[in-house]
Amino acid sequence: MHNTHRRTFLQSAAALGLAGLSAPLIAAAKIKPAANAALIVVDVQNCFVDGGTLPVKGGAEVVPVINKLSTAFENIVVTQDWHTQGHASFASAHPGQKPFSSIKLAYGNQVLWPDHCVQGTDDAALHKDLKLPTAQVIIRKGFHKGVDSYSAFEEADRKTATGLAGYLKQRGIKTVFVSGLATDFCVAWTALDARKHGFEAYVIEDATRAIDLNGSLAAAWKQMAAKGVKRIQSTDIEVVA
Ligand code: VGL
Ligand code: ZN
What we know:
Layout: H1 3-15, H2 23-26, E1 37-42, H3 62-70, E2 75-81, E3 102-105, E4 108-111, E5 137-141, H4 164-170, E6 175-181, H5 183-196, E7 200-209, H6 216-226, E8 230-232
Parallel strand pairs: 1-2, 1-6, 2-5, 6-7, 7-8
Antiparallel strand pairs: 3-4
Helix pairs in contact: 5-6
Residues 43, 81, 113, 150, 181-182, 185-186 line the site of pyrazine-2-carboxylic acid (VGL).
């Protein structure tokens, strides 16, 4: 840059009152999760990564991000998709239906999936590199054969509670930060239900990966924004060491 240009810039910056602003003041303050906040780690299971029964593109990439984030939280909740054999969300349970199509069940629309995350199988186990020794509770969901549960709070009949809202409330938790798989299904439904149950809710975008079926990812972000779910990145959170 020519000196004349630099001088001009500095003079106009001073005129605008910017001269005293140093870099640390300009940098956005990071979010420091309080003692009444919880990290929810949704469905980081073998079924949802390469080699699993319903792999989410890049699913395993959330593991190191979540491991690192976890050190910033006093409270951690882990969830597991935990289906019966022959579960109603499996295409195989509906003769003539193919995975990724939709049907109407008693409680409403249901996307049909490949058989996945069957209780007690290796496929349903947490990813082996997920290191969350301080996690306090594991919520399993989708264990009623006739009802799916994307949300960690409520099953798809929108009536049956998993118990997570009560658990968090009894522990004085006010804010949840949602991570894991998949952004547009279990993460989104969990974040939306967190709002419904009165929690402040954040989704940490780069700690999630999406299935993105027929525009479901864009639709999920739109719905979440409408309900006051805050969309952030892992770098927005203060992680020490
Ligand atoms: C999920 C589809 C079916 C998820 C679970 O964890 O997002 N998606 N079951
Ligand atoms: Zn499932």
